[in-house]
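Recap from last week: sequence in, structure out.
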Amino acid sequence: MKLLCLDVPLSGASPQSYQPHLLDEVRHGWQLYKSGIVRDIYLRQDRLGVAIIAECDSVEAAREALREFPLAKVGLLDWEIIPLGPFLSWEMLFAPSGV
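Predicted structure tokens:
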């Protein structure tokens, strides 16, 4: 299952509060990338944070993996997890006219 995972800063989160955890945060991301859970990771352009494309068996499996990020463990962020599926509307291109 492909998932879009957006970090959600929690109360008290700031660049200063993140700083002591950033190296461990990147290390954990690298481990998830090597294990195949993190497929892509992007820096958000609207605010400080990341967007991750993950591959897991379920939303709950992704949530468990993301809870292990150091910033999540110390209560500075949580995750919004959005399950994704294939875009099937391409089929409209091949439908007979008037259908």
